[in-house]
Amino acid sequence: MASVSVRSLVKRFGADAAAVNGVSFTVREGEFVTLLGPSGCGKTTTLRCIAGLEVPEGGEILIGDELLTSAGRGVCLPPEQRRLGMVFQSYAVWPHMTVFENVAYGLRAQSVARAEVGERVTKALELVGLSGLQDRNATKLSGGQQQRVAVARALVYNPRVLLFDEPLSNLDAKLREQMRLELTRLVRELGITSIYVTHDQAEAMVMSDRIIVMHEGRIQQEGVPQAIYDEPASRFVADFIGVTNLLEGTAAGRGGEGGVWVEVPEAGARLLCGRRAEGVEPGERVTVSIRPEHISIEGAPAGPNRVEGTLTEAIYLGQSWDCRVRVKDVSLRVQAQGEVSLRPGQRVALGVLPRRCVLLRG
Ligand SMILES: Nc1ncnc2c1ncn2[C@@H]1O[C@H](COP(=O)(O)OP(=O)(O)OP(=O)(O)O)[C@@H](O)[C@H]1O
Ligand SMILES: [Mg+2]
Q1: Which of 201, 236, 271 is the last residue before a domain boundary?
Q2: Which of 73, 131, 233, 262 has the fewest C-beta atoms under 10 angstroms from its C-beta?
Q3: Single residue among 236, 252, 272 that ends a domain in this structure
Q4: Beta carbons of 67 and 17 less than 8 angstroms apart
């Protein structure tokens, strides 16, 4: 077990803009941290630098206080000396080999004694719940089982840290959900420090102790899943994580409970915004982010943030309604709960609590 520190990491490929451009973060011992971001934002490159598969142009990587990589000092330990385990998207199980042989392969290549190989492989297969299948040909396994072989293959080396690169994205939706829980339970039980890469925000929310959101080679925000969702730090994060309404406005002055009044001309509204309101000055241009499920429809609470609009779309989803409500010049996405009956064309009252209105600057 070990902590991981990445400091000012820079990695370029040729003359293009840096794939990773000054990334710094720390993963505590036993913590499960996810690098989340859209395609091309530098997640895999960051992970490969940690694994020692890429040599960065700048920055340092440490496990505990052991220096693995230092661009300045010309240090870059080869992958096999780092004692990290890596699990990739393609399960990369070897066909024509049994489950046991797949997991044993690397140990045998290192000339580990036969009895020890047997012991370690048996233990790793037990941990991932594949004990009964050790003599099965690896290609005769389900996708989820193949993925577990890949995890066992990483665990058999007793890694200090596990690195995962989109390990579940080849599985069908239902299996993917099940494996999310299985995988997190396993690494939590083992207490192994884990760094997980995905572009799937739901996956990141479910699995992680902490999420690091990346965009164009840089970190946009890091925090626990709830903080990332409820208090996005930028327009990019608000938009990338889940669904949100973004309204352009101008700060007008202080209101109750530390909130800031924002004039939103396109909605003909004045909204009291209670999140991320610190330091906002009157006259400042801001964006207000409001999640669809935080807007109440019909029985809007009495409070400062009430607007009226016309329902233009109402799709019944069983648990909720997915609605569009026209408020002056904007169309707001609203997720209505309950058994209300909604018909397009009807006038509705909307309400949102100030603490559900997040101010985004810049
Ligand atoms: N070997 C390489 N040679 C040249 N460019 C590369 C190489 N590997 C990555 N890149 C570029 O670096 C940037 C970051 O790539 P990276 O693979 O880290 O993204 P990612 O966040 O993992 O994306 P995805 O979600 O698509 O896997 C991209 O612009 C990519 O094209
Ligand atoms: Mg990738």
Answers
A1: 236
A2: 73
A3: 236
A4: no
